[in-house]
Design brief:
The chain is of the alpha/beta class. It contains 14 helices and eleven strands. Helix content is 41%, strand content 12%.
């Protein structure tokens, strides 16, 4: 059967890596985003705004995918707005497709806020029991992930396709200009430390510094999405997805420092806002970019310090169980230091860091 994928959010970390994985497996891939200039030539660009139903319908008029993958979201001022806008994005896509009944499978990528709560109530109150398991009940809170899921479930019932939801931890992978990009943010931070003498201080909480945690390589996530989209086991269920190992930041931080040829600073025993640390470093980054001929001279286009602060500032342990997909046949694994080092190597090869 011809496999035709529509990736909504194809220019993000998840979308880009998924597109590359599907193309390598022989799929025809349509990449939907508002700005499609960064898509590779192997992906058919679809420029559209998912919140503009008229233009979205026009852009999708001739496209009949067998699979649709939702890999994006948009941040609003309140969680109520997040719920309304992000579920509307999903409904709008299904309403705009000329033949939604031709769909075989729909995929939604969310994350650990499913267990930890939305930005307004993130990791507050009684800490959830770890490791996070897919069987855990929804929190009694507004959460745009839940509204996105419900929109997917409703469309699947209406049009008769199967679905999966994938819940990664922090995603580490290559994408430029992404608003949730901890790996690239840490690469920029380490580069600034090496070039200006700024101490390479871990910006997160004591719980994150000392406790066990995990992350998700974007390639691991893409592999699981592809497996679930084609496997009978991946039908109408949700899957956690992480690399498969665990680590402590008090170990990995020195490993990252060594890669950049710097020393890790002593941990001060409390969180330090990376957003505040980088707030006045735009001119320093511009000078570094000029010195080494880097492709991006504007710091804020590479670093998303607010998101890194949110992830590393969590006051609770974050360990994710992915036994469910393993028992059903998914055997993917990534070694976490390699997730970071492979990203750093590519950023260097593409001239985003020196």
């Amino acid at each position: 059967m011809s496999r035709r994928a529509l990736i909504v959010g194809a220019t993000g970390i998840v979308g880009q890596n998924l597109a590359n994985r599907l193309v390598a497996d022989g799929w025809t891939v349509y990449g939907l985003a508002r700005r499609v200039g960064t898509l590779p030539g192997t992906v058919i660009p679809v420029a559209a705004d998912t919140l503009d139903p008229v233009s979205l319908r026009a852009a999708l008029a001739e496209i009949v995918p067998t699979h649709v993958f939702f890999t994006t979201w948009t941040r609003q001022a309140t969680e109520t707005e997040n719920c309304a806008v992000n579920s509307a994005m999903i409904r709008n896509v299904f309403e705009a497709l000329p033949k939604p009944e031709a769909l075989v499978h729909g995929t939604l990528v969310t994350g650990l806020k499913h267990y930890l709560g939305p930005f307004e109530a993130y990791a507050k109150g009684a800490p959830p029991q770890t490791p996070f398991r897919e069987s855990m009940k929804r929190l009694d809170l507004e959460n745009f992930y839940y509204d996105q899921e419900d929109a997917l479930f409703a469309a699947a019932e209406t049009f008769g396709f199967s679905w999966t939801v994938h819940r990664p931890h922090t995603v580490i992978g290559y994408a430029i200009g992404n608003l949730m990009n901890m790996g690239t943010t840490l690469a920029v931070y380490a580069t600034l430390c090496r070039e200006t003498g700024l101490p390479f201080v871990f910006p997160g909480s004591p719980a994150q510094w000392n406790g066990l945690t995990d992350v998700t390589d974007a390639r691991q996530l893409a592999d699981q999405i592809l497996w679930a989209a084609q496997s009978p086991a991946g039908r109408n269920t949700a899957f956690n997805v992480v690399n498969g190992d665990v680590f402590r930041w008090n170990w990995l931080w020195s490993e990252l420092a060594t890669w950049f040829g710097i020393e890790a600073a002593a941990y001060p025993g409390h969180a330090t806002s990376l957003e505040q640390v980088l707030a006045g470093k735009g001119a320093d980054w511009s000078a570094i970019a000029g010195k080494y001929g880097l492709r991006e001279t504007v710091l804020d286009r590479l670093a998303s310090a607010w998101h890194t602060d949110a992830d590393l500032g969590r006051p609770v342990e974050c360990v994710t169980d992915m036994s469910k997909s393993r028992k059903l046949g998914f055997s993917g694994y990534r070694y976490t230091p390699d997730s970071f080092f492979d990203l750093f190597e590519r950023l260097r090869a593409e001239h985003y860091i020196p």
